[in-house]
């Protein structure tokens, strides 16, 4: 019996259209949470009466804390899902993230704020880990590129959730709520999204996958080690390197484009911070998002037509050129920069999609969750370097420096992928343009 198709994707055995639709809704909410705290937290810290200089240090500390939790727990969450199934881990992650989010605005001290951020971080480690892993389970090998493209499209749409939530405090204040109550209601609505998504995921995601449950009978430690050892496969190792730069790309763009434009607008053009944000940053951020929407579908198609190592090479090569070109930008408000940012959106999401398609192809079936969990760890390291190291470069050298750094890192991954592509072609005796299943040495 032929397997069902949905949105042009051939679904894996045992997966229904309803399962995949539920997963896409979970992706939408999961990606919305990814940027929500960075947008909402500044207003909350102000309402809490925390001094401005302390706000900056606390924001950096909380962001670093969350990435460290990701580094520590993503692999473990993946290994746990190999034994228990994806659904319970995803439901747990969505629910705990929602609970932590709802509690966040009720913090009465910095200590409580840190405790609630830890809840969000632990939940997010499970949630984000499953967001990346489930797509590899739900699509056949021939369709994983398109599946990752559709997933990236939903994740990009989820990026519109934080701005919508950010508008709610003003709405509540206009209806007579004091500032703290307005923040608490906003965070409560944000938390409710996770709880609703958890219930929908519990009902709509597939039960424990047979191909995972029947194999993963080893101890939790053995499962975790098995996922770590998967990096001995050259293509899996490349996917980890691509995860590092693709997540770093997204972090650098998200953290420093708006900051650069607001600083330039206030310093050079005499605008207020809010004017600079609205007039300069918003149109250019939207250009990047538009590029990402287009790039997610293009790279999903390419990843199913060329080998996935080739897809990584194309994505990292484009990203190297685009991020390196930021060195030429002296006026970030110039018209041509909007075009550059549009292509940057294509490049960063292409690196994201191609790396996920490659690790989904290579991850051993028994240790798929753990392997993709360590893939997430590599991505978390990229985010940590991009935001912390990039911040130093931005302040001490120039606003373009973080982009140039990741341009160089993308170029290194481009050279790595081209070298591996050549090795695989020589090993398999195939011409350069071969399909992903033909080039894979450990297709699942």
Automatic annotation (TrEMBL):
UniProt key word Transmembrane: yes
Coiled coil spans: none
Topology term for the membrane: Multi-pass membrane protein
Domain of life: Bacteria
GO MF term set: transmembrane transporter activity
Positions of the Major facilitator superfamily (MFS) profile domain: 19-425
Location, primary (coarse class): membrane
This protein's GO CC annotations: membrane
A Pfam family matched in the record: MFS_1
Membrane spanning residue stretches: 20-44, 56-77, 89-107, 113-135, 147-165, 185-207, 237-261, 281-302, 309-330, 336-359, 371-395, 401-420
Keywords: Membrane, Transmembrane, Transmembrane helix
Signal peptide positions on this chain: none
Subcellular location(s) per record: Membrane
Protein name per the record: MFS transporter
């Amino acid at each position: 019996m032929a397997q069902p198709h949905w949105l042009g994707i051939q679904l894996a055995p045992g997966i229904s259209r309803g399962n995949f639709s539920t997963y896409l809704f979970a992706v939408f909410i999961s990606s919305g949470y990814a940027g929500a705290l960075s947008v909402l937290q500044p207003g909350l810290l102000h309402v809490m009466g925390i001094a401005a200089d302390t706000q900056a240090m606390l924001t950096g500390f909380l962001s670093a804390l969350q990435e460290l939790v990701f580094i520590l727990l993503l692999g473990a969450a993946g290994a746990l899902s190999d034994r228990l199934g994806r659904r319970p881990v995803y439901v747990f992650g969505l629910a705990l993230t929602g609970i932590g989010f709802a509690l966040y605005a009720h913090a009465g001290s910095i200590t409580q704020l840190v405790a609630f951020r830890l809840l969000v971080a632990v939940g997010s480690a499970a949630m984000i880990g499953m967001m990346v892993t489930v797509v590899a389970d739900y699509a056949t090998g021939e369709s994983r590129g398109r599946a990752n493209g559709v997933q990236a499209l939903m994740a990009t749409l989820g990026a519109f959730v934080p701005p919508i939530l950010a508008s709610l405090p003003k709405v509540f204040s206009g209806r007579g709520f004091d500032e703290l109550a307005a923040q608490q209601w906003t965070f409560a609505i944000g938390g409710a999204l996770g709880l609703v998504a958890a219930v929908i995921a519990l009902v709509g995601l597939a039960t424990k996958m047979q191909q995972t449950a029947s194999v993963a009978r080893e101890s939790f430690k053995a499962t975790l080690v098995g996922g770590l050892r998967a990096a001995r496969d050259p293509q899996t190792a490349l996917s980890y390197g691509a995860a590092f730069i693709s997540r770093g790309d997204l972090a650098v763009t998200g953290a420093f484009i708006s900051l650069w434009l607001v600083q330039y607008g206030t310093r050079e053009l005499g605008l207020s911070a809010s004017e600079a944000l609205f007039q300069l940053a918003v149109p250019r951020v939207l250009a990047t998002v538009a590029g990402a929407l287009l790039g997610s579908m293009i790279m999903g198609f390419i990843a199913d037509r060329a080998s996935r190592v080739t897809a990584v090479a194309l994505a990292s090569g484009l990203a190297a050129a685009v991020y390196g070109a930021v060195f030429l930008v002296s006026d970030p408000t110039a018209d041509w920069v909007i075009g550059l940012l549009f292509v940057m959106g294509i490049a960063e999401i292409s690196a994201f999609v191609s790396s996920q398609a490659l690790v989904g192809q290579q991850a051993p079936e028994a240790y798929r969750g753990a392997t993709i969990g360590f893939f997430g760890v590599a991505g978390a390291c990229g985010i940590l370097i991009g935001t912390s190291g990039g911040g130093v470069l931005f302040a001490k050298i120039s606003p373009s420096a973080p982009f140039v750094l990741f341009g160089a890192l993308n170029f290194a991954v481009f050279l790595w992928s081209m070298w591996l592509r050549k090795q695989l072609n020589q090993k398999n005796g195939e011409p350069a343009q071969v399909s992903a299943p033909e080039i894979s040495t450990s297709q699942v």
